[in-house]
Design goal:
The protein is about 0% helix and about 35% strand. By secondary structure, the protein is mainly beta. It folds into 2 domains: about 400 residues, YVTN repeat-like/Quinoprotein amine dehydrogenase (Methylamine Dehydrogenase, Chain H, 7 Propeller); about 300 residues, YVTN repeat-like/Quinoprotein amine dehydrogenase (Methylamine Dehydrogenase, Chain H), CATH 2.130.10. It has a 5-stranded antiparallel sheet with strand order 1-10-9-8-7. A 5-stranded mixed sheet has the order 27-31-30-29-28, with no helix packed on it. Strands 2-57-56-55 form a 4-stranded antiparallel sheet, with no helix packed on it. Strand 36 and strand 37 form a beta hairpin. It starts with 14 loop residues before the first helix and ends with a strand.
């Protein structure tokens, strides 16, 4: 799906790169407060993203790690009973490193942790890196690679692709997607191609899908045109494992686990790497003492209504022959775990007898439906110190059990939302309403608990594309997004309950975009942009969505902005031409105002300051920040910052005449979270080096009722909120 043209040449990472970011603190480590003196926390939702790997340390009771596709890695803190984020220090310029491709621990040295990071292998993405820690992720050293990794691409749930050699703790192996197998002899400080590894890497395949130790041998799964399993017993010579079962010859080895008691290696296979696209799969085991293969597949897909592959596999470190495997991409019957206590001779599905408790994260009921046992199950682990403590990852959470019957999200502290919109109401119960990728809109009556109403329903949306509140009538809120039963909805009670628009423009089904509502809630303006970038004409409704008419003079694809005081005024910024458009007749017609502004980037953002007519601010990324006080007729560039990616407003400081301004931007070399109490003349950085969260340029919002509180949208670490310490 994602291609890379890198060859095996140029893989070596030198000592200079190995020293980069030496001893950088993780988010959980102590860091000196920034000039703003802020305390940062997650707005609690609970999970919401794809947990691609979970790993119990084999030598330390209660120590576990989890990785996600776009939201970093976590360490389980047994004493505090929560996951601790380990990569919140990743900054703006290194956003691609927030996706974790693989992780590894050293059984002989419990404090050592290694992560292979890199979200995309596309040409436009930065190269990957290996992070290594001697204190369980509290601080890191980083080695930059010259190959790309793909933590958010197909195959992200396979693995692990990173392994400490069982014969020598100084030796590490790293499997890549398009550049073969790499080897380090200095605990990850430098890397070189592994000599003697036979498969030739390609620009399109999966490359090395897994690495696992079995005694003193290392096995590597290969997922390209001729999928197979390779083995080395001396660290120098690799050979294909003989006698591999014919049924697995055309399938990708997804994951593997070694039962050290029975000396059997269990391998799951699928006809695609997943998590999408799998329709067939199997499970096999290899007796490593004599090379005998045995198929132990629990259930076969029927090839028609019930199609799936196999994903996770885990063995019980305390009981020989006890093994658990997961199905994957089984949408019709819903994925399950199969458990065997006799080495795979017989299996029991754990789904049918499962009792799910999702009360801590109600969104898992998907707008009132029954919570599903699982989907996209590729991460799976059995606690080596507790045979009945089994955990598995899904596309939205991490489930755990202590008795194989009762299951609940094991997710406290782990937040992985990709956040699209933030609204902080000026009144009412909730201080925040959010629009998210994959799980729609949330009404946050508390910031410290998952929203009790779960996902906004009637209708349920997947990804939210628009969220707006009537400035003079905050009880009225509208939302848009990708839904199966309508793509727009309104609320008359501030976002607690919703109803679908009575009708919608035909294009809304295929290209729902952002929406605006006039200050008095009398007019809706909805724009439409397809996921492929195609822009369509906006539509206007003056009867709460009962009827819609085309707004022909509105610039196609632009984001509509309502004036917060005058209900007749709307604005839009045409990013193609660098022109601001305005309407003074309730969105019926638009005319061009200021031109010659920065153009050519769809992520430029126009916002209106609260409580003022015609007071507009334009975030133009590396072109800086601009302001208009005449409804878009003229703009003045702020000389206090050189880059601006998102702007929002909050309660003014005591004695200040203008609302507090928050932005994701730069006044010096660092892109940061900034606050201004004097109308953008000066700025204070309010985050610090330990709290950066990669890319944060989607949206930002201050709280209109609490001075200093700011909500920050991240792409993978949920909603962060900061307050003066």
């Amino acid at each position: 799906m994602f291609a890379s043209n890198l060859s095996r040449r140029g893989v070596l990472a030198g000592a200079a790169a190995a020293a980069a970011f030496a001893a950088l603190p993780a988010a959980g480590a102590h860091a000196a407060p920034a000039a703003g003196g802020y305390r940062w926390r997650n707005v609690v939702i609970g999970g919401t993203g794809f947990v691609t790997g979970v790993l119990f340390h084999p030598s330390v009771r209660g120590l576990a790690y989890a990785r996600t596709d776009i939201g970093g890695a976590y360490r389980w803190d047994e004493r505090r009973g929560r996951w601790i984020p380990l990569l919140d220090h990743i900054g703006w310029d290194d956003w691609n490193l927030l996706g974790v491709e693989a992780m590894a621990v050293d059984p002989a040295h419990p404090d050592r942790l290694y992560l292979a990071v890199g979200t995309y292998a596309q040409a436009w993405a930065s190269d990957g890196a290996v992070l290594r820690s001697e204190d369980r992720g509290a601080t890191w050293r980083r080695t930059d690679l010259t190959v790309k990794l793909g933590a958010n691409e197909d195959g992200r749930g396979t693995g692990e692709r990173l392994l400490v050699d069982p014969r020598d703790s100084d030796v590490l192996w790293l499997g890549t997607r398009h550049d073969g197998l790499l080897r380090s002899t200095d605990r990850g400080a430098t890397w070189a191609p592994a000599e003697g590894f036979p498969p030739a890497p390609s620009a399109t395949g999966q490359g090395v899908t897994l690495l696992v130790a079995a005694g003193r041998a290392v096995y590597a799964g290969w997922g390209d045109d001729s999928p197979t399993l390779y083995r080395t017993t001396d660290g120098a010579t690799w050979t294909a494992v003989p006698g591999q079962p014919a049924g697995a010859a055309a399938k990708v080895p997804v994951r593997a686990a070694h039962d050290r008691h029975s000396r059997e290696l269990y391998v799951t296979y699928a006809d695609a790497p997943g998590p999408n696209g799998q329709s067939d799969g199997s499970v096999h085991k290899l007796r490593t003492t004599d090379g005998r293969w045995t198929e132990v597949t629990p259930a076969r897909p029927d090839g028609a209504s019930d199609t799936f592959g196999y994903g996770g596999v885990a063995v019980d470190a305390r009981r020989p022959g006890h093994v658990v495997v997961s199905t994957n991409n089984r949408w019709a019957a819903v994925d399950t775990l199969y458990r065997s206590t006799d080495g795979g001779a017989s299996w029991t599905s754990l789904k049918e007898g499962a009792v799910l408790d999702v009360s801590e994260t109600p969104y898992l009921e998907w707008g009132g439906e029954q919570a599903k046992f699982g989907w996209w199950i590729q991460a799976l682990a059995v606690d080596p110190y507790d045979s009945r403590h089994v955990v598995f990852g899904t596309g939205a959470t991490l489930y755990g059990t202590r008795d194989l019957v009762h299951w609940a999200p094991w997710i406290r502290g782990l937040e992985e939302s990709s956040v699209r919109q933030l609204v902080s109401p000026p009144a009412g119960e909730a201080h925040l309403i959010s629009g998210l990728g994959d799980i729609g809109v949330m009404y946050h009556e508390r910031l410290t608990a998952s929203p009790s109403r779960g996902m906004a329903a009637d209708p349920v949306f997947g990804t939210s594309t628009g969220l707006a509140q009537a400035a003079a009538r905050p009880s009225y809120v509208v939302r848009t997004g990708w839904g199966d039963h309508g793509n727009g909805a309104y609320s008359q009670d501030g976002g607690k309950t919703w109803a679908p628009f009575a009708t919608q423009p035909a294009i809304a089904k295929d290209a729902p975009g952002p929406i605006a509502v006039s200050a008095d809630a009398g007019v809706l303006l909805w724009t439409f942009v397809h996921w492929d970038g195609t822009k369509y004409a906006a539509h206007r409704s003056a009867d709460n969505g009962a009827t819609w008419t085309e707004a022909a003079t509105f610039p196609k694809g632009a984001t509509p902005v309502a004036d917060p005081v005058d209900p007749a005024r709307f604005y839009a910024y045409d990013t193609d031409t660098g022109t601001v458009y305005a309407s003074t007749d309730g969105g019926r017609t638009f005319t061009a105002r200021a031109g010659g502004l920065p153009s050519g980037d769809s992520q430029f953002k126009l916002v209106a300051a609260p409580g003022r007519t015609g007071d507009l601010w334009l975030s133009a990324k590396w072109n800086g920040l601009y302001r208009s006080t005449d409804g878009g007729g003229t703009f003045t560039k702020a000389d206090s910052c050189w880059a601006s990616y998102a702007v929002g407003f909050g309660k003014a400081a005591d004695g200040a005449a203008y609302p507090a301004i928050y932005q994701v931007g730069a006044v010096d070399a660092i892109t940061a979270i900034l606050r201004s109490d004097d109308g953008a003349r000066t700025w204070t950085r309010v985050n610090d080096d330990a709290h950066q969260w990669g890319w944060t340029g989607e949206t930002i919002a201050g709280d209109p009722r609490v001075y200093g509180r700011v909500y920050v949208a991240t792409n993978g670490r949920g909603i962060q909120y900061g307050e003066p310490a």
